[in-house]
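The instructor's notes for this session suggest beginning with a concrete chain rather than abstract definitions. Hand out the sequence below and ask the class to guess, before any prediction is shown, which regions might be ordered.
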Amino acid sequence: MNRFTSIVRRCIDDYSMIEAGDKIAVGVSGGKDSLALLCALSNLKRFYPKPFELSAITVHMGMEDMDFSPVAELCEKLEVPYTLIRTEIQKVVFLDRQEKNPCSLCAKMRKGVLNEKLLKQGITKIALGHHYDDAVETFFMSLFYEGRISCFRPVTFMDRTGVTQIRPLLYVTEEQIRSFSGRFELPVIKNTCPMDGTSRRQEIKELVKKLSEDYPNLKSKVFGAMQRLPLCGWELK
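After discussion, reveal the predicted structure:
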């Protein structure tokens, strides 16, 4: 736990993600990434020199076969306040509007619901579970599908809401998270979204995996290039 947390802390320190007095919520989807992040921040909170408050929040898409009670139990064990927001996003996206490209609308609706709740609770920062591999894949998605060199930022201030997004897992690989999740038997909730595993991101994930077989250092070179260029917001503090 401490070894995993130390990697997360290095990313937090490199990008000044946490300040004393911050009220931070972890956006918990139920997947291994957000659950690992929740555990790491809960552990970090015990000894980090800048005291901060921590909570967890989940936007329920309305899929009846997704039960988040194990997540609630984990939060109780960690002594982290937990909020579950029930919505009908799945119904709106897939039944009412029958979107051909549902992921974009779904993301916007989830973000809107989440931001509204954060403001009501007086939360200043939301911690997201994007990791090292996500960053590399997003870089390729921007290049191939949008024709630009870009990626999400480690720290993003949302001026419309006053909430700051932080991504403390950016130095952690997906394999490390998978290992951590298995070792600590985290209650991962299976994603039953019909688009899971069929999106453009999945296509890029498979492409990067294939390229990495011939170029083993591909991910580290791309990630390092984003920091050295640097991309906007990727400057080391």
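Then share the key points. The mean pLDDT is 92. The radius of gyration is 18 Å.
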